């Protein structure tokens, strides 16, 4: 009788363990998604702050790109696949500058790609940060 109960406990443990591990992986991936989203917002905010005080700002200015890429590298995100768009102010009154930072987020990252023979298990989706700030015409850079 004891071996039947031990076998039943083993089967129950296996079923519960699979569900528990899936929940833990899901929680970890959600945390990673929040980290990437916050990094995109911080990089866009820093780019917009820099752009708001930059004289002679042009569309997709390379100086702003450099600032944004620096923030992404500091957050541990590879900026090579990142889209960075800078929209300079139009007109004089109430002028605003907008910086958009966007990158594809791959759920269940590189570790599962190796396991799945190079194919992603879940499709990637875009994560972006968009920040608009008032353009300061008295910039010095």
Could you characterize the architecture of this molecule?
It contains three helices and three strands. With 141 residues, the chain is an alpha+beta fold. It has one domain (2-134). A three-stranded antiparallel beta sheet has the order 1-2-3. The radius of gyration is 23 Å and the shape is elongated. The mean pLDDT is 84.
Question: Brief overview, please?
Answer:
With 141 residues, the protein is an alpha+beta fold. Helices cover 50% and strands 18% of the residues.
Helix content: 40-55%
| Strand/helix succession | HHEEHE
Global mean pLDDT: 84
Count of discrete alpha- or pi-helical segments spanning 4 or more residues:
3
* Backbone CA Rg: 23 Å
Read across the widest sheet, the strand sequence of neighbours is: 1-2-3
Apparent shape: elongated
Q: How far apart lie the N and C ends?
A: 82 Å
Low-confidence stretches: none
Describe the structure using short key phrases.
18% strand; alpha+beta; 141 residues; three-stranded antiparallel β-sheet; single chain
How is this fold's topology laid out?
Layout: H1 2-52, H2 62-74, E1 83-87, E2 96-105, H3 109-115, E3 125-134
Antiparallel strand pairs: 1-2, 2-3
């Amino acid at each position: 009788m004891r071996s039947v109960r031990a076998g039943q406990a083993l089967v129950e443990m296996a079923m519960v363990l699979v569900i528990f591990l899936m929940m833990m992986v899901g929680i970890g991936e959600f945390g990673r998604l929040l980290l990437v989203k916050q990094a995109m917002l911080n990089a866009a905010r820093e780019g917009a702050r820099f752009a708001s005080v930059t004289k002679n700002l042009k569309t997709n200015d390379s100086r702003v790109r450099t600032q944004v890429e620096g923030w992404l590298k500091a957050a541990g995100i590879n900026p090579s696949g990142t889209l960075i768009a800078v929209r300079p102010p139009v007109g004089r009154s109430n002028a605003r500058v907008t910086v958009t930072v966007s990158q594809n987020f791959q759920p269940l990252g590189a570790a599962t790609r190796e396991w799945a023979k190079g194919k992603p298990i879940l499709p990637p989706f875009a994560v972006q940060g968009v920040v608009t700030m008032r353009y300061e015409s008295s910039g010095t850079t």
